[in-house]
Each structure stands twice: as structure tokens, then as C-alpha cells.
Amino acid sequence: MIYQDIINSQRNYFNSNKTKNVEFRKAQLLKLKHMIKSHEDDLCEALRTDLSKSKTESYLTEISIVYSEINSALKTLDRFARPSYKKIPLHLIGSLGYTLKEPYGTVLILAPWNYPVQLTLAPLVGALAAGNTAIVKSSESSLATSTLLQKLLNETFPTEVVYCLDPKVDPELLFKFKYDYIFFTGSEKIGKQIMAHAAKYLTPVTLELGGKSPTFVTRSANITQAAKRIVWAKLLNAGQTCVAPDYILVDKSVKDEFIEQVLDQIQRQCPKGVLEETYPCMINAKHYLRIKKLIGEEMYKTETSFDDNTRKIGLTLFTHATFNSPIMKEEIFGPILPIIEYDEIGEVIEIVKSKAKPLACYIFSKNKEVSKRIIEEVSFGGGCINDCVMHLANHHLPFGGVGQSGMGSYHGKYSLETFSHTKSIQNNTYLIDLPLRYSKQDKTLNIIRKIMK
């Protein structure tokens, strides 16, 4: 089928108003849930092929999150779709004011390779729940998973509702056409290209990007728990996570203890290192060689391990990193954890504020005032106190970036908000018709001022 024909078929179907029916939307969500339930093992196997993810990690970080999104949408959709009545000012007495959520139309969803199931299907949940039609493209880098998703989605949905493109399709083809909304997850570089395309048509966008997410470990932190949770978060997908702790800012007085605990946790959580069958691999040879080169060029680091055959790299600490280190120039997206010591929290906060705004920020501290100060002074997309990554597990919280780490948010009810336009309606009555609105005389000005002040 010609791509233009796919877009036209979706536009025509959307214009028939069938997707706006709440029961229709629920049916699409249930279809999607059934599709996943019926193919959980296939999806896990595809993720193992692409990224060497264990079945447990695949379910925890990918499939279960999509289930959570579907269940949340089904639970909130009736209320979301109803008119929301608003207060009426005195000069509009007798009328009604309300808002309605309406879908945008045909949306384009572009998903990355690192969490291909979650980051393809979670936005799709929001798009369908809001009443849109959707064109989906997953990454060619995660070919096994993306090819499977293409097959499953196109077997589950009619083309006019959801169409999943071949992951190998030339992205330039996509940019030749107009969409009603674009949702992109990926790199800042491609995000800029998406915005440039969207600007031609004034198409609204959500950009879920990344950045160097800092983790503060203060002197009052529970060092054992901090190390345990940081290592767990960094080992997820072998560091190929947009909200992974990118670097550590640790109080000088607890640095040695922290490093000791981190090394202990690496041994506990991944005792066989790169020989661990369930430890994820780098997505491809290019990325593997990039991370390996970064480690090879660093002088002060802990012992590491590589497996060229499986593309696996052990979690490596850079123990004497600074903000000027080469590793601090761009997002790592791999199993490297630079550790930067600080003397005074205020100084390091100012340095972080001078950098690009990160997607996430994590704070380990028992001192509530210190935590509050970091949260209030540092701009970031979202984060945790005394934990890492787990803000994604709460679908009641919006997830998204700020500045260079992205724009817009989703998850839970926020996904429905993202894929909807809020339409304002003022419904007036013929029974009351204040003559003041028609008067051009100056003597009415005092009356108007008393009413509208």
C-alpha cells in the first residue's frame, strides 16, 4: 500500500467520527491488551534477541508498563471524555461554560530501540484512548522486536485505525507528509529534525529525549541503600536507559564508602558480569565499540570486562571523574558510572544548573532541606528522592523532559491529555441579554467597571 493512501485512509476514517465514540476507543485498548497477552513469550524472545534481556526484565520494564497504561486509560476514559463544566463570571450569568477533549486526528509515533515494546505501545495507548488514528514506526536497530510489533499490530488493527510501518523504511519518507500530531522518543539530534519538519505544518509535537541525569549522594544518605538502588538502575538494560543515573555527585566525606558499596552491589546483583546470561548487551557493534573506547581511554577506573562476541560490557566506575572529563561531554547510554566528588552542595548545584536540563535527577539524602533545595533549584524532567528510575513506575505521575531533554509528557491520564486538544465552549441563553454589551456610551463605563473589575 502506498504511504499516502495509508494516511488518506486514516484521515477519512477519523473524519467519519467513529474513533470519537468512547466504547470504540475502549475496544481498541482491549484489542491491544489481548494482542500483548497472547504474544508475551514472543515479545520476550524478541527482546532477548535484540538486547539479551531476561524475561523478568522484559516484563518488568516493558510489558507490565504497557498493561498499566491500558488499565489506567480504561479506568479514566469515561470521565475524561465527558464535558468539564467551568465557573461563570457575573457578566455571563445564565450561560454555561465547559471544555471538551477532542482527538487531534492522525498521529505519528516514532519509537527508539532501547525499550522497543514499551516506547512503541505506551504512546499508542494514549493515542487510541484519546480517539486518534495512529501510524507507528519502531526502530530498525531493535529489528527482531520491531518486526514482530509490525506483524502483530497490522494483524490486530485495520489499516485505517493503526498502521505499523516496516522498521527499515526510510525516515525521509515520513517527513514528506503532514500529520496532526507527532510523538517522538529518541535522541536530541533527531528531535531537532522532527521539530523542523513539524514547523512546516505547525504540527504539535511531544519530544521524549534524554540527557545527562545527575545523582546526588549527600553525606546523610544511607550509603548501602543508595549503592544498591543506583547499581540496580544502572544495570537495567546495561545502562541503555534514557533515565539511567548518568553520573554520580558524591559528598567527599562518603565517597570511599560509596565506591566500596557500589562494587559490592555489582558483585551481588551481577556476579558473573558479562558471562551472566540475563545481562543485557549493547544494541549493536557500533554502540559496543563506542562504550568500549570510552572505557579504554579512561585512566582512573575500576576493573572491567568485555565480551566481543556477545557485545556485553561490565559496569565500570570512573572513580576520579570531573565535569571536564571527556565522559561528561554527552549522554553515556551504557554501563559506565562516572563519580564526581564535591565539598559543598551549593557549588555543585550551580554547576549542574549551568548544564543542559536533564531528563531525570536523583537525590539520596536523609536531610529533607537538602533534598528540597536540589529539587527547587535544579530544573529537570522528573526524578526520585532516595531511589532511581521508579518515578516511571507510577502512572499517576507525568513523564517527560524539559529544555534539551524534551517537551511534553505522558503516562496515565497525562497520555490522554497529550493526544487531545482541549476545546472551550461558551453556551449562552436567549433569556438574559444584558444591554450593556451593546452600548457605546461613556455613561455605561462606570457600570461596566463595577461588574468587570
TrEMBL record:
The active site is at 208, 242. Pfam families: Aldedh. GO terms for cellular component: cytoplasm. One of its GO terms (molecular function) is aldehyde dehydrogenase (NAD+) activity. It comes from the Bacteria. InterPro entries: Ald_DH/histidinol_DH, Ald_DH_C, Ald_DH_CS_CYS, Ald_DH_CS_GLU, Ald_DH_N, Aldehyde_DH_dom, Aldehyde_DH_NAD(P). Residues 6-425 form the Aldehyde dehydrogenase domain. GO terms for biological process: aldehyde metabolic process. Keywords: NAD, Oxidoreductase. Belongs to the aldehyde dehydrogenase family. This is Aldehyde dehydrogenase. The lineage of its organism: Bacteria, Bacillati, Bacillota, Erysipelotrichia, Erysipelotrichales.
